[in-house]
Design brief:
Elements lengths: L1 E6 L9 H8 L3 H12 L5 H10 L6 H8 L8 H10 L2 E10 H11 L3 E10 L2 E8 L6 H13 L6 E5 L13 E5 L3 H4 L4 E3 L12
Parallel strand pairs: 1-2, 1-5, 2-3, 5-6, 6-7
Antiparallel strand pairs: 3-4
Helix pairs in contact: 1-2, 2-3
């Protein structure tokens, strides 16, 4: 058995979930600024997550779900997941984003499992709070190691794909470390760098 782990925002999905939500509520510039700083490793990921989600306090759950169920996917995402599964890989999505996006996407892209954060709603309104498994800068690496232990897979049979600073923690546990249209901080630790927005290019290295 082999393992391929993909980031969601700006990797499997074309853009950042929170920025699509922010666009609806006219707060996109501020949201984008915080996101960029977090992905470049300039501010702590957890702190940035709390700040960004708080900006959406008061948003309607129905509208949030509608936007998350209609996000655009990166070119080649579905094909790449399918091909990897044919090669014997278990394909997993790790997201510092939200299950409201990664669960609907799983039905379309076909990955085997997803781990993401959960937005908190009360009486159909977003409270500005969240919880979940991917809230810290080292969350993805810790979860990757747990899955490897569970499935008895080591780093030689593992691929990790991401674009931002919060994907760095996966790299020590994967022999194939893919920086996909990534920030410099991630490229510096990758051994596969893809600058063209087509995920099928990953298949050339397998």
């Amino acid at each position: 058995m082999k393992l391929a782990v993909f980031d969601f925002d700006s990797t499997l999905m074309e853009g950042e979930t929170l920025e699509f939500l922010a666009r609806e509520y006219n707060i996109e510039p501020l949201m984008k600024q915080i996101t960029t700083e977090a992905m470049e490793g300039k501010i702590d990921f957890f702190e940035s997550l709390i700040k960004r989600v708080a900006l959406l306090k008061g948003a309607k759950e129905e509208k949030i779900k509608q936007i998350c169920e209609n996000l655009p996917f990166t070119k080649g995402a579905k094909e790449t997941v399918s091909e990897l599964k044919k090669m014997g890989y278990k394909v997993v999505c790790f997201s510092g984003g939200y299950e409201t996006a990664t669960i609907p996407a799983q039905k379309i892209l076909g990955y085997d499992a997803q781990f993401a954060n959960i937005l908190h709603f009360k009486e159909g309104i977003m409270t500005g709070m969240l919880g979940g498994e991917m809230m810290f800068s080292d969350s993805k690496g810790k979860m990757l190691k747990k899955i490897q232990n569970l499935l008895n897979i080591d780093s030689t049979a593992t691929i990790a794909v991401g674009d931002g600073a919060n994907d760095l923690s996966m790299f020590p546990f994967a022999d194939k470390r893919v920086a996909f249209c990534a920030k410099p901080i991630l490229k510096s630790q990758a051994n596969i760098i893809i600058n063209n927005k087509d995920l099928t290019e990953i298949l050339n290295y397998i």
